[in-house]
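[[Encoded backbone]]
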Amino acid sequence: MDLRGRNKVTPEFNMSSMTDIVFLLLIFFMLASTLVTTSAIDILLPTANGKTENKKSIAVSIKKDLTYYIDEKRVGESVLESELINALSGEEKPTIVLRAEASVPVQHVVTVMDIANRNKFKVILAVKPN
């Protein structure tokens, strides 16, 4: 009488289906990451340590040719304050993210900070992380 079991489990594991799933996930995330774009003016920010997080804000960008932008809209220095007041009216905690290129003179950065101070806006200076 043969009492040995007929159902033997083989110790082999087939990885082909697992590699297919990982490959498909890799392709999905590579394609999805290229679709994410920021709506901002392309400028070279100064570097610093730290990280700032904010939920809702308006970006003020100053390029090296001293042109001002509110989000992606170009504005003149003379109408900057009125445009900021219009853009931030109705906000509970109005916040400005100030993005100035490294070569912009400090006086132009101080001008935007002075406008924010007069109107009780919070200012966050954007920098490039190290």
The CA atoms of residues 98 and 112 lie 8 Å apart. The first strand starts at residue 47 and ends at 48. Strands lie at 47-48, 58-62, 68-70, 73-75, 95-100, 122-125, 128-129. The chain has a mean pLDDT of 81.
